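User: Second chain of the day. Same drill as before.
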Amino acid sequence: MDDTAFILIVEDEVEHGQAIAEGLRRSGHACHVVHDGPAAIASMMPLKTIKRRPSRLNT
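Assistant: Same format as last time:
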């Protein structure tokens, strides 16, 4: 089993974000660093294309 995690880092201090990403990458994780909320949301947009199972209502 692969224990690699993909981690989105949202940090407005560029140097801090890079330092966090470097440490996580050394531990074998994949990281993407963005510096504000809108960039974080934009980077997650492709995830919205995943189809969700419709909820079942018992009515």
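The helical segments are 14-26, 37-44.

User: Great, on to the next one.
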